[in-house]
Amino acid sequence: MASRGQFSSRLGFILAAAGSAVGLGNIWGFPTKVAENGGAAFIIMYLAMAFLLAYPVLMAELIIGRAKRANMIDALRSISGNVMGTIVGSIGAITVMLILAFYAIVAGWMLSYLVEALLSVINVSVPWLTADSITRNLIFTAAFLVFTCIVVIGGVSAGIERWSVRLMPTLFVLMLLLIVYVSIQPGAIQGWKTLLVPDVSRVLSPSLMLDAMGQAFFSMSLGVGTMLVYGSYVRKQENLPSLGASVALVDIGVAILAGMLIIPAMYVALNNGVEIFNENGSLISGPTLIFSVLPSLFESIGYVGTVIASAFFLLMVIAALTSSISMLEVPVSYMVDAKKFSRNRATQIITFVVFIASLVIVFNFGALFGLVITITTEYSQPLLGLLLCIFAGWIWKRNEILNELKNGNDQAENSWFWKIWPWYVKLLCPLFIGLNFYFSVL
Predict the structure, then answer these.
(1) What is each CA distance from 100 to 4, 128, 141, 144, 361, in whole angstroms?
(2) Side-chain half-sphere of 380: how many Cα atoms within 13 Å?
(3) Per-10-residue mean pLDDT for the chain, 442 residues long?
(4) Are 294 and 312 in contact, with CB atoms under 8 Å apart?
(5) What is the dihedral of CA 282, 285, 289, 290, to 10 degrees?
(6) Which 3 state secondary structure label does DSSP give 283?
(7) How far apart are CA 293 and CA 106, in angstroms?
(8) Is 177 exposed, middle or buried (0-12, 13-18, 19+ CB in 10 A)?
(9) In angstroms, what is the C-alpha Rg of the chain?
């Protein structure tokens, strides 16, 4: 126990855990879902789902992690007392490695666009950096994984916490500066209207509720053990419900800030002659938005656009890195805890395995890229979230959970959290997640 790492401060944990949750999906996924689902109507439902669904599951991971002081596999095995925990934990570790394999490829694109933007500032043009090629993909995927590896090798306080405390404030500052700049450009006002004016008729739309539920769940990187492992590094005296709420609020805040940046930016692009709608009338989203629409906007601004592009892609790389270090930590923590590898060696081995998986995806991009994303994020993640609710609500002894909560709050038994959360995570969360999974698959 003594050899396990630990976050040295409450702020360090909040920024690291929020960094894990804040990723590329927040910045390109959330804004377009807002625009496509009635603007503020979607935000209202997203806020509701974040606390009705995502927060209870987040708390399940944090409580399990801190109580068991172990990686996902050993923690769930300890709760189940049989092979079931080992199987679920192993699926989680494999899932998070596959997510990191495709995530590193996308983050590599961000890195190459950042380098291209920085070179453009000094009037150097290298078209190869933004042209799709296997060589570029492999070089920048490897570079991104090396950065991730270096941070994780540093350990919990000297690596993950230290870098999160630096990167997350930088991310906030960059977002705020970009929001201010974009907001004063012609066309931005229409983006703000799209963002802030709710289409009231759609608030209770089943498709909107489904999108909001899915976004809330996935934006907090739940189900694959990242929060469970981070929870295992939290000090015993911390009040976990309060800590979890802080993480959820920061993650929600970044998602909303992303909407305040991306949606007005899209309408500024439209004002500058850049097409932002698909043939079916929906807003362009995903990679096309990030690698086509916004670069066209930056180009239309002139020299200032190259500086804005540099800041934007730096923002994207930071968001990617804060997520990737938490993903890599999941299998690394298992290698260190259960297999007694040194952190240095465990991190290098897992990074190499992930790079090999990325390599396979890059060389079979058309067949594997979308498939891996679908299997991991649409199938595996929600099912793992469902199983974590079952572990916390049905398998783990209630008294053990209460005793763990009392470590950070002597009056936990009388708190609103304890009166609501146990039955909520036992009954309602599995139902919500199950319905979301059912409808998203069908």
Answers:
(1) 24, 25, 11, 11, 12
(2) 23
(3) 74 92 79 80 87 89 95 96 95 96 96 96 93 96 98 95 94 94 94 86 76 74 88 94 92 89 92 87 79 89 92 94 96 95 97 98 95 87 90 95 94 94 93 79 68
(4) yes
(5) 170
(6) strand
(7) 17
(8) middle
(9) 21
Instruction: Tell the burial category of 307 from Cβ atoms under 10 Å away from its Cβ (0-12, 13-18, 19+).
Output: middle
Q: Identify the CA nearest to 61 among candidates 16, 17, 6, 5.
A: 17
Domain ranges of the chain: 10-441
Q: 333-337, long-range: CB within 8 Å, 24+ apart, which pairs?
A: 333/71, 333/72, 333/229, 333/232, 334/71, 334/72, 334/73, 334/74, 334/89, 334/93, 336/71, 337/4, 337/70, 337/71, 337/74
Token output for 147:
């950065």
Cβ neighbours of 185 (radius 10 Å): 18
**At residue 59, what is the residue type?**
M
**Interacting residues of 438 by C-beta distance below 8 A, sequence separation 6+:** none
**Fold of domain 10-441:** Amino acid/polyamine transporter I (1.20.1740)
Longest CA span, the chain: 65
| Tokens coding 118 | 């920085």
- 95 neighbors 380 (Cβ within 8 angstroms): yes
- CA torsion, points 8, 10, 14, 19, in degrees to nearest 10? -20
Cα–Cα dist 185/203, whole Å: 30
pTM above 0.85, yes or no: yes
Q: Encoding tokens for residue 238?
A: 């911390």
| Torsion over CA: 335, 236, 157, 5 (sign) | negative
**What DSSP element (H or E) covers 441?**
helix 429-441
Pairwise CA distance, residues 266 & 288, whole Å: 12
Q: Which residues contact 347 (CB under 8 A, 6 or more apart)?
A: 149, 152, 153, 328, 332
